[in-house]
Amino acid sequence: MRRITIFLMLSLTMLAAQASDVIKITEFRRAQINLFDPVSLERVKKVDTGTLELPLNILEVKPSGHYVVEIENERYSIKKRMVRTDRTYELNSSCKNVLAANLDAATRGLGNGECK
């Protein structure tokens, strides 16, 4: 019984974490956007962005540069560059650059007693 309780608690925690990771479209960059078929990525129609209710939940992120959303109970994909989202990016960087130099000396090629 204890194992079942622990399993349920872990499952609910994971579901809550996944639900909070939903990315939403918060703004459109143009007055009109193209909606594409999410599978073939062929253009389906062009819509006025003023007729769409924001925010839109992003259901899937395609490697082709599209977000899959649901509009009026239909799934469409929208190009990523046409929208702004509430996604936050965490960027970390660490550099371990070391500047090293050799202690060598050189001349312009003076020789045969020119240097004293």
Notes on the protein architecture:
The protein has one helix at residues 2-20; strands spanning 24-28, 32-36, 43-48, 56-61, 66-71, 74-79, 83-85. The protein has 116 residues and is α+β, with helices and mostly antiparallel strands. The chain has a domain at 20-85: SH3 type barrels (Roll). The strands form two sheets. Strands 6-5-4-1-7 form a five-stranded antiparallel beta sheet, with no helix packed on it. A hairpin with a 2-residue loop joins strand 5 and strand 6 (74-79). It is elongated and about 90 Å long. The N and C termini lie far apart (94 Å). Residues 12-19 have low confidence and may be disordered.
Compact overview of the structure:
Helices cover 16% and strands 32% of the residues. By secondary structure, the protein is α+β, with helices and mostly antiparallel strands. It has a domain at 20-85: Roll (SH3 type barrels).
List the helices and strands and how they pair.
Blueprint: H1 2-20, E1 24-28, E2 32-36, E3 43-48, E4 56-61, E5 66-71, E6 74-79, E7 83-85
Antiparallel strand pairs: 1-4, 1-7, 2-3, 4-5, 5-6
Keywords: Signal
Signal peptide: 1-19
